[in-house]
User: Fold this.
Amino acid sequence: MTALHWESTGSGDPVLMIMGLGLSGGAWWRTVPVLSRSLRVITFDNRGVGRSRARLHSYTTEAMADDAVSVLDAAGVDRAHVYGFSLGGMVAQQLALRHADRVRSLVLGATHPGGPRAVRPSADVIAFFRRRASMTARDAARASVPFNYGPRCRREHEDRIAEDIRRRLAHPFPEQAYRAQMVAAALHNCYRRIGRIAVPTLVVHGRQDRMVPVANAEILAERIPHAELRILDDAGHLYSTELPEVDEDITRFFRGAR
Amino acid sequence: MSPRVDELLEAAVNAYEDMIRRSCDLQRTLARALPFEPARSLLNTTADLTRDIGAVQVSGARWLLDS
Assistant:
């Protein structure tokens, strides 16, 4: 039996939020209060993560996009703005391609289009992901800090990083679900098709991102017709921790995309 | 690879992807019509597997085309 945990906050035009690798919908905790001032924000835990349960894991972003549509169905939403972050951004691309009639606009945060043209992270990041499987959740969260946050955030906002980790550890996930999501990210390939995305799209990326190099944002913005590109100079992968004001810009984008 | 061959191969991959999707939709429609378990769950599971195996094949084919 598959059961996806979802939550709805606020009222207004609906926004579906799709979180990244191994993180529950609760990881949107900084963003939800900002967006929900003027929008209905729907978050959910991807299959096998957090409070969601599944008999089978999702090994493709296509399957994860279909899960996202079932959340829209359960929430009674025909068409929503969609905000996908990292792996969630890959799922959001699939959602916009597979279920175009359900997507009103798109924000792609810190993500890539997949395929051989996507720009891979450096060898030390790939080595971290390989080591990650043998670490405890707490050790992995600590070890990921240099890869997830830019130098300025690590220097000036240790408190924010500590709070992120505390909340992340509140929703542990089975290792198998993490591996399945890794497979989904590795297989993801929308490079050829993203030119078919016809809804207003905003691509957001930290220039210091080591997990997903910023060149991927340039590829996405170049290939998706009329996409806007917002590069955040001082931010790494988890840009909303480093520059929370970006959530205001994203709210404005959604409100303007009707 | 010439642009013409590339276009034809891409069209073939797209057609195969559409076929997978129609097959999944058909299996899910049949599952909804079935009044009893476990046949319904089984059909939904085969629809999921069709989608996921097809997605891996299509992703791999597109990977080769882009290389």
Summary: The two ends of chain B are 11 Å apart (CA to CA). Chain B has a mean pLDDT of 88. Chain B touches chain A at residues 10, 21, 45, 48, 51-52, 55-56, 59, 62-63, 65-67 (CB under 8 Å).
